[in-house]
């Protein structure tokens, strides 16, 4: 690819949710979403986005970590959130940019990292290359 378009910039990123040194993926069902949200309830977890940037023949990789603390959630609150449909395609079974914001007590770090792209850090890295 770089031989065909040597001036192009290529960015690849992926975001994971981690609790107790375990990666939490996307739920495959509402039942799985319930179990994930129950696990995160009342606890702090980490959201880590890993990025790789190719620009001008150079590749730089980096990651961003954000800590997210959830309120203690009742079963009814979890079921109500699952009913929004937001859980099915989200790592950790929530989207902070939607109704999932109501689950979050606080965050420490980059909000946009939790959304899925640490834009400020990415911009900084692009300017460094």
Q: Report mean pLDDT, rounded to a whole number.
A: 94
What's the count of strands?
5
Distance between the termini: 19 Å
The strands making up the biggest β-sheet line up spatially as 2-1-3-4-5
Strand content: 25-35%
Question: What name does CATH use for the topology?
Answer: Maf protein
Spans of at least 5 consecutive residues whose pLDDT stays below 50 are none
State the shape: elongated
Tell me the series of helices and strands, N- to C-terminal. EEHEEHEHH
The SS-based structural class is: alpha+beta
| Main pleated-sheet profile | 5 strands, antiparallel
> Which second-level CATH architecture applies?
Alpha-Beta Complex
Query: Helix count, per DSSP?
Result: 4
Helix content: 25-40%
């Amino acid at each position: 690819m770089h031989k065909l378009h040597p001036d192009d910039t290529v960015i690849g990123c992926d975001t994971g949710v981690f609790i107790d040194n375990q990666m939490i993926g996307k739920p495959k069902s509402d039942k799985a979403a319930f179990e994930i949200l129950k696990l995160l309830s009342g606890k702090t977890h980490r959201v880590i986005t890993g990025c790789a940037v190719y620009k001008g023949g150079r590749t730089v990789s980096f990651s961003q970590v954000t800590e997210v603390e959830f309120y203690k959630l009742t079963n009814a609150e979890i079921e109500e959130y699952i009913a929004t449909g937001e859980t099915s395609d989200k790592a950790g079974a929530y989207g902070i940019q939607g109704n999932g914001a109501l689950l979050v007590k606080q965050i420490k770090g980059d909000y946009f990292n939790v959304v899925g792209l640490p834009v400020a850090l990415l911009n900084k890295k692009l300017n460094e290359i």
